[in-house]
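Dear colleagues,

As part of the handover before I leave the project, I'm documenting each prediction I ran so the next person doesn't have to rerun anything. This entry is a single chain, and its sequence is reproduced below.
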Amino acid sequence: MKAVILAGGMGSRLSEETERVPKPLVEVGSKPILWHIMKIYSAHGINDFILCLGYKGYVIKEYFTNYFLHACDVTVDLSSRSVEVHQNRSEPWRITMIDTGLTTNTGGRLRRIAPMLTETFCMTYGDGVSDTDISGTVEFHRQHGKLATVTAIKPPGRFGVLSVQGDKVTHFGEKIDSEQSTINGGFFVLEPEALNRVSSDEISWEREPMEQLASEDQLRAWHHSGFWQPMDTLRDKRLLEELWASGNAPWKVW
């Protein structure tokens, strides 16, 4: 199974960091938040990734192309132009990195990689971590037989709101200020047909496509009451850093 990660946004609310690197490469505990997200999926046996790149996407390409230099001890022989890797500690990941445009919206990024998706796949954003049960979400998705599953959570009310009856998403709406709201926490499981609701690069996945899926009774919610935290601001980054430094980061499921 593939996991798609949207990693192309500009991260303007974290400009202190994103002026030099793309948001998914902003570090938490000396590792990019993108690495943390991939480790969550890998802990559930998902090691085949598609990264939808945009802003400073070449930096993400360079990071993974040179991943051995970041993760392992190496000997570089300049005379033979060879690199010897010692005690390979890298993950068994297959990473496809696709330039999906600088200003392409979230739905448009998915639309651009749709030809690469021929079976059920996972999808999430490149700036948030959670201890949600990925394996459980996939199994739940297969059992209900609909086109899309979204992880539903109850954090502070600054995100798009889900109207939910049981596990059925009846409406996907605007942001409201209510701590009681159930919101889109990412960590989707999708069928390729779900992407047919995206008609152009300008479409936001969180608007028309999800609203249409809900109206067609094709969207279900996996309820997660555990840890979930996006990294939208410098304050969020500091919180994640503190949790990681404590040695008790809730999202460290590997």
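The chain has one domain: 2-245. The longest helix spans residues 234-245.

All the best with the project,
I.
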